[in-house]
Amino acid sequence: MNNFWKNIWDSKGKSGSDDLLFLDGYEHLKIKFSSKEIVTQILGHLDATPPGTILEVGCGAGFLAREMQDFHYTGIDYSVPIIEKHKILFPHHEVYVLEASKLSFESFSYDWVFCFGLFQYLENYEYAERVISEMKRVAKKGIFIGDLKTKPTRKEHFVYSMNKLISENFKISECLYDSNDVERFNAYYKMEAL
Questions:
Q1: Second label for 111, Cα 20 to 30 Å away, from 15, 123, 140, 155?
Q2: Number of structural domains in the chain
Q3: CA-CA-CA-CA torsion sign (25, 11, 6, 102)
Q4: Burial of 66 (0-12, 13-18, 19+ CB in 10 A)
């Protein structure tokens, strides 16, 4: 586990802030960053409609989750303080402290599984492969991996290959919040009908 990032998320969760942009790591962006617009696009790529079940891996304090009130929403994050903050801000959400690579849910538990802005904080390819495998295992209809980078913007960032995702039958889309940003992308995968 990468303690560098975990310490950052834990400290955000322990802060007195209820600013979701800060808590979920988007405070540095200098552009309009709308949770509603991002969620609308994620759901569109997945063809996800309420009242289905949806799991967010790396849910943070609930920046995106707040837009999913019409779904049976579940979120997981590895930071205890962030999950505690999420429960305070959104007491009706079902959220758990779990590792992304070890989801303790039955296979095919959720219609859709997604993460956004998570992969840059993963430690390596082996861990990322386990995360993808777990996301596919618990999803019935599709998975979405959002806000991937083509190159790191900090030396601590992890970069997962777009070509590897394409070779595994993922579809690729452009950055959801800045069409001029060609160094960020998303990948989504629709399951075969059961």
A1: 123
A2: 1
A3: negative
A4: middle
CATH code (residue 157): 3.40.50.150
Q: What is the DSSP string of 139-177?
A: EEEEEEEEEEESS-SSTT-----HHHHHHTT-EEEE-SS
Q: For residue 119, what are the contacts with CB-CB under 8 A and spacing of at least 6?
A: 128, 131, 145, 147, 148, 149, 158, 160
* Helix H or strand E encompassing 72: strand 72-77
The boundaries of the domain holding residue 147 are 3-190
Q: Which pLDDT tens digits describe the chain residue by residue (194 residues)?
A: 458 999 999 999 999 999 998 999 888 777 778 999 999 999 999 999 999 999 999 999 999 999 999 999 999 999 999 999 999 999 999 999 999 999 999 999 999 999 999 999 999 999 999 999 999 999 999 999 999 999 998 899 999 999 999 999 999 999 998 888 899 999 999 997 54
